[in-house]
Amino acid sequence: MEMRSLYAGTVLPEISQLLEEAMQAYHDGDHAEKLLKKAHQLAPSALPVYFSLYKFLFYKGKLAEAERVVRSALEESARQGGFSASWEQLTPESSDWLAHDSPQHFYLFSLKALAFIRLRLGDREECDKILEKLRFLDRTDTVGASVIGALASGIL
Fold first, then answer.
1. What gap in Å lies between CA 69 and CA 73, rounded to an integer?
2. Model pTM?
3. Sorted alphabetically, which SUPFAM superfamilies does this protein's record hold (predicted)?
């Protein structure tokens, strides 16, 4: 079976098809969400599915559910990358954070998503703590956490 490469990894063709159908059905939120959840059920460890699902939920304004999916994505990417899922415990030595097509990079990207969700939910304190950790782990800002920092500071 051929795998298809997407952001954050590869998926089987049937999972890729579900993600594509969900994207095309974006205007029909209930249908698109069902497709994404089906993809997640069929491929519970596929990072591209987590990415698609939490982005969809975020843009549909389902922030609490998006946060739950992001936190699950952090756990799964940490498991795949072999490091602690607890962002508070991570250091630059915990993993190779510069490996762009890796669970580590996906973890950083998802941590940025968590910071944005916490900001949107009005939890500036946790948002700031997450952004501080991202500056520590991702010193060259490869995932663009500085944009969330600028939003939090009211610059953007």
1. 6
2. 0.92
3. TPR-like
